[in-house]
Amino acid sequence: MSLLLSIVMPAYNEEECIHEVVENWVDLLNRQFPTESTRLIVINDGSKDRTGAILDSLKPKYPNKLEVVHTPNGGHGNAVVRGYRHAVALGSEYVFQTDSDDQFITDDFSKLWAKRHESNFILGYRQIRFDAPARLVITRILKYSLFLIYGTYIKDSNIPFRLINGIYLKKLLEQLPDPTPFAPNIFLAVMARKAGEKTFDIPIVHKERQTGTVSILKWKLLKVCMQSFQELVEFRLALGSKVKALKTVHVTQPVKL
């Protein structure tokens, strides 16, 4: 099997919005790629509410577009990587990742898709970010930590709105530390940037969260921030060999018509 595009979406306790979010993204696939093989892969990360049941109820409605993978709760990072590996195993030419909390709009996908021939790794960034003040402060700390540790500046390194060439993603995943870091998307962004990818600055809309609750708050948020910082410091020593391996990847971009 081979696919033009897979959308990877982790989900945890999003019963209030998951139905609408899934329908919005499947609708985008049907509108933009009516004759192409595409998938929305939702990783249900051990949700304790009705998220899993709602996803299962949607599968018969979209038998050729929606795949649901149920896993024990392992955290957002593990769910994202599991989704990436699933998309790569399906032979996806491109892999797009977003979240299931209804804070992004599907219209912004086209901004990244339009750049797919120019870069193997494309990041959006949240122009105005609607998150709790503590999360905004810690995000800023991590952003400057990346500059301090790696000498690289990325506006929004952990954003769940990214488009990656499937072959390139496969190689990135091979370079990812084991066990999976708390925030693997940061590591992927750093490796891609250091390997020469530069399309990291596409502005997108970030909406205020209307449903559910953020799963990491207050002191737990500070704890995982410190964990991420430590993981990034430890990864610094291995970065050179990882980047060297990425530079051996030769992706043949389709000719633009």
TrEMBL record:
It comes from the Bacteria. Coiled coil: none annotated. Residues 6-137 form the Glycosyltransferase 2-like domain. PANTHER family: UNDECAPRENYL-PHOSPHATE 4-DEOXY-4-FORMAMIDO-L-ARABINOSE TRANSFERASE-RELATED. Gene3D superfamilies: Spore Coat Polysaccharide Biosynthesis Protein SpsA, Chain A. This is Glycosyltransferase family 2 protein. Pfam families: Glycos_transf_2. InterPro entries: Glyco_trans_2-like (IPR001173), Glycosyltransferase_2 (IPR050256), Nucleotide-diphossugar_trans (IPR029044). SUPFAM superfamilies: Nucleotide-diphospho-sugar transferases (SSF53448).
